[in-house]
Amino acid sequence: MTVQERLSPASLYRQCDPAQFSFKTTADLDDSIAIIGQDRAVDAIQFGISMVQDGYNLFALGPNGVGKYTAVCRYLDQYAHNKPTPPDWCYVYNFAQPHQPNAISLPAGKANELSQDMAHLLDELFTVLPVTFESEEYQTQRQAIQDRLQARQEDGLEKLDEAARQESVALIKTPQGFAIAPLQEGEVIRPEQFQKLTDEEKQQYEQTIEKFQNNLQKLMRQMPQWSRQSREEVRQLNQEMATFSVSPLFTDELIKKYEAYPEVVDYLETVKVDVIQNADKLLQVDDSSSGGQNPMMALMQARQQQTAVSPFFNRYQVNVLVDNSQTHGAPVIYADHPTFANLIGRVEHEARMGALFTDFSMIKPGSLHRANGGYLILDARKVL
Fold first, then answer.
1. Fewer CB within 10 Å, N- or C-terminus of the chain?
2. Among 209, 182, 179, which residue's Cα sits nearest to residue 197?
3. Which pTM was predicted?
4. CA distance readout (Å), 177 to 152, 216, 220, 378
5. What SS3 state is found at 100?
6. 183 φ/ψ angles, rounded to the nearest 5 degrees
7. Residue-wise DSSP of 3-25
8. How far apart are CA 220 and CA 213, in angstroms?
């Protein structure tokens, strides 16, 4: 039987002298990967990665477990780190053709910044517009428009009544509306008294009543037109007040900030015009839509309850499709589940009142979007 040799503690431990190394930490070392015995494969990977022309792909073939994915990823990561970071992509609302949103490309990190600025702008609008439309100046001007409409209607009815009384008839108000009634000695003739009149008197009254009844109908047909004119005056007043309060938010805070990006400036100018034109929708200052609430209360209720007006606010959002703010160099994306939707993106839908709706804010990116300007790794068998 062989006797086991005893080892001394010194023979079980070998001391390493740090002075023999030329680096301070292992972070200073070259971390390039080497695949033993696969020189041709490594050369092919490096050659394929370095090609800058479009239309070429790298296909790695070999048995499972030989490290194809690891090798390709390591070389791609090393090469992509020194490549320029691709731009962001975002979708914004197309005010001219809502079903065709506009895609805007911005430097890495700017799309998310624009999205945050637009969210901040919406909060500013919720603050500035209510104050403007609750101001004494606005309320006075709007009340003056309503008073003019009411005075115009009352004046028309008063003149008609004066003309009617000169011919022994009068304009009276009934539960069913306005009507023309016969007069005798300044008092409305009761039905039983009217029946006691002679046929000639009845005929005279009937002719006069028919005449002023026609005049009343003409007046009634004019009143909706006066109301439309009054609503147009209110709309113009709303736009004037909105222009006064909204313009500084764009000129001072946003448009100047993005003046180097013409597409964003054009978009912001369009947003400004749309906000001014739809100030009443933003605030529900129209009595028919707000149920008579004051603008501030209507707005707060809409935001808290997410009522039917809420989708209207989506037009002022920015849908950031690709955000490269945290990307350093070119992106390297591995599509683990390369389905049709996961590769090219999808458009989601939302159920409202039993129907499906969608808009530009529900467009979601795919792997091709995220890998744009970089590299996309796919398992060919999973794609097939």
1. N
2. 182
3. 0.70
4. 18, 11, 11, 76
5. coil
6. -120, 150
7. PPPP--GGGG-----GGG-S-SS
8. 10
Both tokens of 53, joined, read 């022309």
Which residue carries 């037109």 as its tokens? 225
DSSP code per residue over 65-94:
TS-HHHHHHHHHHHHHHTSPPPPEEEEE--
> For the chain, what is the radius of gyration of the CA atoms?
39
Q: What string of DSSP letters covers 128-186?
A: HHHHHHTSHHHHHHHHHHHHHHHHHHHHHHHHHHHHHHTTTEEEEEETTEEEEEEEETT
3-state secondary structure of 56: coil
Residues 320-366: tens digit of each pLDDT: 999 999 999 999 999 989 999 999 999 999 888 888 989 999 999 99
Helix/strand/coil (H/E/C) assignment for every residue in 292-316: CCCHHHHHHHHHHHCCCCHHHHHHH
pLDDT of 167 > 70? The answer is: yes
